Each structure stands twice: as C-alpha cells, then as structure tokens.
Amino acid sequence: MDQWRRIFFQANGPQFRPSAMGIKFSSFFEPGTVATFGGRRGQVVPFGGSLYRVPDDLPYSRSESQFEAAFAHLAALQPSFRAAGADKFTLHMHRTFEGQCNEEFTQNELRMLLSLDCLFFYAARSDWGDDA
Q1: How far apart are CA 48 and CA 40, in angstroms?
Q2: Nearest partner of 30 among 15, 40, 42, judged by Cα
Q3: Are the C-beta atoms of residues 68 and 32 closer than 8 Å to each other?
Q4: Smallest Cα–Cα separation from 67: which of 100, 94, 105?
Q5: Cα–Cα distance between 100 and 70 in angstroms, integer?
Q6: In the structure, what pLDDT confidence band is assigned to residue 127 with cuts at 50, 70 and 90?
Q7: Is 33 a member of any domain?
Q8: For the chain, percent helix, then strand, then coil, each to nearest 5?
Q9: Nearest Cα to Cα of residue 67 among 16, 114, 132
C-alpha cells in the first residue's frame, strides 16, 4: 500500500496577482493572460490564478498530524493570498493508493480544513503521472 499524497492549494480572483506574493507556485497566471491550468487552460482570462504545492517535508510534531501541519501552513499563507487579491480557494488532495482507499480525518483536522474556507477536492487512484 502506497500512502503517497500531494496537496495543492488553488487560489483565484478577478484582482488576484500571484506574482505579488513572492512565493513559488506550481503554476500561475495573472488577470488578462493565458490560463496555465484549470477549465479555461489556454484561454485569456479576466482573473488571476495560482496552484501552490504544499511542501512534502513540512515539519510536524509527534502530537500533530501531517494534515494538521499542512492545514496550518496554508492558514499562515492565506492572508498573503487575500492581500494579493485571491477570493476563491480550493484544496486539492491527490493520493496514490492501490485497492480500496479509506481516509480518516480527526475533528481537529476537519476544523482546520473548514477554517481555510475553501472547496475540497480529494481523489485517490493508482497512478497520477507527472502532472499531478
């Protein structure tokens, strides 16, 4: 069983300027440019968007889960996203798993996820390829 996960945080908004944040994104575009991901990929769009990959090696304590560490990391970044104009967020969790996939979130993890005020996309499959 492979427990491998990737967590991405997607942000967009009509006034969102990802380049103003000064952090490394997996992909981003500014308002009035060509979208590099999403349903409008390849089209000029009137909004900015970014896809931020949560680092796989975030430090976490024995009393904290990897999810709590990831959600806390994103909560700390969210004011910068908002200051750069983002007003819509989606958390994407991709998990590689063979066979049946069961994932359990604690009450604290769920509270932290809810505090991000975002849509949540979760998928598990046997192969994600290089673009996920």
Answers
A1: 12
A2: 15
A3: no
A4: 105
A5: 24
A6: low
A7: yes
A8: 25, 25, 50
A9: 114
Token readout for 4 is 């491998």
The total number of structural domains in the chain stands at 1
Please state, in angstroms and rounded to a whole number, the distance separating the CA atoms of residues 13 and 117: 14
The one-letter code for the residue type at 67 is F
CB 121 within 8 A of CB 42: no
- Host H or E run for residue 80: helix 66-83
pLDDT surpassing 90 at residue 33: yes
Residue 56 lies in a domain: yes
Pick from 31, 101, 109, 103: nearest CA to 70: 109
First to last CA, the chain: 19
Structural domain span for residue 28:
5-125
Q: Is the model's pLDDT at 131 over the cut of 70?
A: no
Task: Report the distance separating Cα 75 and Cα 21, nearest Å.
Answer: 15
The answer as to whether 53 is a domain residue is yes
